[in-house]
Amino acid sequence: MSRSVLVTGGNRGIGLAIARAFADAGDKVAITYRSGEPPAGFLALKCDITDPEQVEQAYKEIEAQHGTVEVLVANAGVTKDQLLMRMTEEDFTSVIDTNLTGTFRVVKRANRGMLRAKKGRVVLISSVVGLLGSAGQANYAASKAALVGFARSLARELGSRNLTFNVVAPGFVDTDMTKALTDEQRQNIVSQVPLGRYAQPEEIAATVRFLASDDASYITGAVIPVDGGLGMGH
Length: 234
What we know:
It is built from eight helices and seven strands, in the order βαββαβαβααβαααβ. By secondary structure, the protein is of the alpha/beta class. It has a single domain, classed as Rossmann fold. The chain has a seven-stranded parallel beta sheet with strand order 3-2-1-4-5-6-7, sandwiched between helices. The longest helix is centred in the middle third of the chain and has 29 residues. The model has no long low-confidence stretch (mean pLDDT 95). Keywords: Fatty acid biosynthesis, Fatty acid metabolism, Lipid biosynthesis, Lipid metabolism, NADP, Oxidoreductase. Pfam families: adh_short_C2.
C-alpha cells in the first residue's frame, strides 16, 4: 500500500537516496529542500526547517496532495565546523537550530496526523560523530547526539499509540561533500573504518526503509549504526 512519506533535506546525498528508496517501493514521497534545484519525481517543497511557518505550510501542501504523513525521515542538517575556541555563538546555535530544533519542529507537526491515525514511523538521521565525537565538530556532534535522547523519549511517550521512533547513525558516506576532500583526507578516513571503505548512500537508505517497514514493527528507541564498524562500542 502506498504511504505518504516525507524526507527532509531530500534533494541530495543521503536524503535523496532515502527518497528514491521509498519511491521505488511505490510510496508517495515528498521532500523538503532549502536551496538549489530539487530533483524531479517528488513533491518538492522549499522549506527552511528553522522557520515554523515554512514547516507548517509544507505539511499543509503534503497533506493536500499526498494525505497525512505516515513516515517521516528527519534528515535535514548542516555543519559549521570550527575548533571550540574559534566557534562563534552563531556557529553553535545555527547548527543546533537546524539539526535539533528543526527536527523537533518537523516531528511534532507529523505527530499530529500520526496520532489521529494511531500509526506512524519516524526515523531520525544522526551520525557516528554524535556517538564517537569529532574534533572541530562540537556543535554538530552535540546536535546529533541529542537526537538519540529525543527519539528515545518519544518512543516511551508515544509507543502506546503505535508510533515508532528510531535513529540511524551513518558513518562516512560517499557523497558530494566527501568527494570534495583530498585523496589524503579520504585515505585517512578510510583507514579508520574496519570495512575499509565509505558507505554508499543507498546503504543508509536501505536501513531507513527497513525501519519504516512492517518487518520493523517491534523496533523503537533503537540506534542503528551504518558506519562500517567505525563507532563500535558506542
